[in-house]
Amino acid sequence: MDARLLDVLVCPLCKGPLVYDKAAQELICNADKLAYPIRDDIPIMWADQARVINAPADGS
């Protein structure tokens, strides 16, 4: 993932910052609890393609 691209990408819903998860190949929006997939080095920034991040089972 290009670092310059990471500097300009924001969440399409809240316009907040994204965190790059290299292992999962996702861009994470902590505010909206969404993970946007990265396929073939291309971020898929459609909300309907994002994975909802569930809170941990223990509530922490």
UniProtKB/TrEMBL annotation:
InterPro entries: Trm112-like (IPR005651). One of its GO terms (cellular component) is cytosol. It comes from the Bacteria. In the C-terminal section; belongs to the UPF0434 family. HAMAP family: UPF0434. This is UPF0434 protein GCM10011396_20610. It comes from Undibacterium terreum.
